[in-house]
Amino acid sequence: MRTLRATIALACSLVAIAAHAAPTSTTPKANVIVGSSTCFIIRECAVGQTPQQRADHITDVFNKYLGGSSASFAVKPTGKNAVITMNKDRLLVVTPQDAKTAKAKNTNQLAARWKTLLAKAFDETKAVK
Asked: Of 22, 56, 104, 122, which is the most buried if we count CB atoms within 10 A?
């Protein structure tokens, strides 16, 4: 009986350890795609949006300026976050969690990197006149 109890306790411990070690994130990642370019991947929820909603918002803003010959991109630090804008329209709020997940030094560094990728994608897909 003692051996059976010890075996059950060991099995329960192993199950608990395996459950704890398994990834717990159920939020899917979202690719930010502009034209035929995958700019980057959003893996975190922020400002009440899932990664996919955040990526979709970027697409919506880009669609607003399709056909234009130029766009102005900027990064503005706001507290712990940084905001990437396109023609003064908010594209994306970059959070410390985004930076941590992307292994960036801080939000401003990640926002600058993402801004560069977005600007490059815009230049590759803009209308030629």
From this structure: 122
Q: Report pLDDT for 70.
A: 85
| Phi, then psi, of 26 in degrees rounded to 5 | -110, 0
* Number of H-type helices and E-type strands within the chain: 4, 5
Q: Nearest CA to 55 among 124, 121, 2, 5?
A: 121
Q: How far is CA 1 from CA 5, 6, 8, in A?
A: 6, 9, 11
Q: Please work out, in degrees rounded to the nearest 5, the angle formed at the alpha carbon of residue 95 by the alpha carbons of 90 and 99.
A: 120
Rg, C-alpha atoms of the chain? 21
Sequence-distant (≥ 6) Cβ neighbours of residue 36 within 8 angstroms: 125
- CA distance readout (Å), 111 to 11, 30, 40: 46, 17, 11
